[in-house]
Amino acid sequence: MIRVVFLGAPGAGKGTQAERISKKYNVPHISTGDILRAAVKEGTELGKLAKSYMDKGELVPDDVIIGIIKERLSQEDVREKGFILDGFPRTLKQAEALDLMLEELGMPLDKVIYLNVDDEEIVKRLLARGREDDTEEVIRRRLKVYREQTAPLIDYYSKKCILVEIYGVGEIEEITKKIEEALGLEG
Ligand code: AMP
């Protein structure tokens, strides 16, 4: 059972590492970005709403995101195997809502893995990635939103003594190993 949050700037490698740990240890990978992009593709009401924020590099409203996560965390696979949260929480309000949900479910967080990557490297990676919301203007906005709204979570989880900071530049495999160590997995 793994119950972990991956924290870090856009482009820090949360998705890549979450995917690797998820496959290797058979733990559900829950990416709010992926869920929203799927909704946009399907053209659902959620997708239409989300797109207007995503296109600008803004955050989708807390209530919407919290509702999505609440539903996902109540599913059977999560109860059985735990979860890797990637891209959630992104605000203090989301983090507090998550605490409450996990308390109700009796599934406290093991760890929060903070992938720390230098600013220049982040911009370089995002420009190279070329996702639809990775234009220079949107990237700049997303980084500002990250610094203002998400970075305070580093302190929030640090105070709860569950934060592990990992330097996220280097070989993907080496970073995975460090994450495994932090989570007490064999590798
Ligand atoms: P990501 O793939 O994690 O970079 O997310 C892409 C976009 O989806 C973000 O720029 C936000 O607009 C939106 N998004 C994803 N996760 C969240 C979240 N937890 N809270 C608010 N918006 C989110």
Please characterize this protein's 3D structure:
- The chain is α/β, with parallel strands linked by helices and 187 residues long.
- The chain has one domain (2-180): P-loop containing nucleotide triphosphate hydrolases (Rossmann fold), CATH 3.40.50.300.
- The chain has helices at 14-25, 32-42, 45-54, 62-73, 76-81, 92-105, 119-129, 136-150, 152-159, 172-182, and strands at residues 2-7, 29-31, 82-86, 111-116, 163-167.
- The protein has a five-stranded parallel sheet with strand order 2-3-1-4-5, sandwiched between helices.
- The longest helix is centred in the C-terminal third of the chain and has 15 residues, at 136-150.
- The mean pLDDT is 96.
- Bound molecules: adenosine monophosphate.
Keywords, please?
187 residues; Rossmann fold; five-stranded parallel beta sheet; 5 strands; 59% helix; globular; binds adenosine monophosphate
**Rg calculated over all Cα atoms:** 16 Å
Total count of helical runs of at least 4 residues: 10
Structural class: alpha/beta
> What's the average pLDDT?
96
Q: Give the strand line-up of the largest sheet.
A: 2-3-1-4-5
DSSP, total strands = 5
Summarize the structure.
The protein has one domain (2-180): P-loop containing nucleotide triphosphate hydrolases (Rossmann fold). Helix content is 59%, strand content 13%.
Map the helices and strands:
Layout: E1 2-7, H1 14-25, E2 29-31, H2 32-42, H3 45-54, H4 62-73, H5 76-81, E3 82-86, H6 92-105, E4 111-116, H7 119-129, H8 136-150, H9 152-159, E5 163-167, H10 172-182
Parallel strand pairs: 1-3, 1-4, 2-3, 4-5
Helix pairs in contact: 1-10, 2-3, 4-6
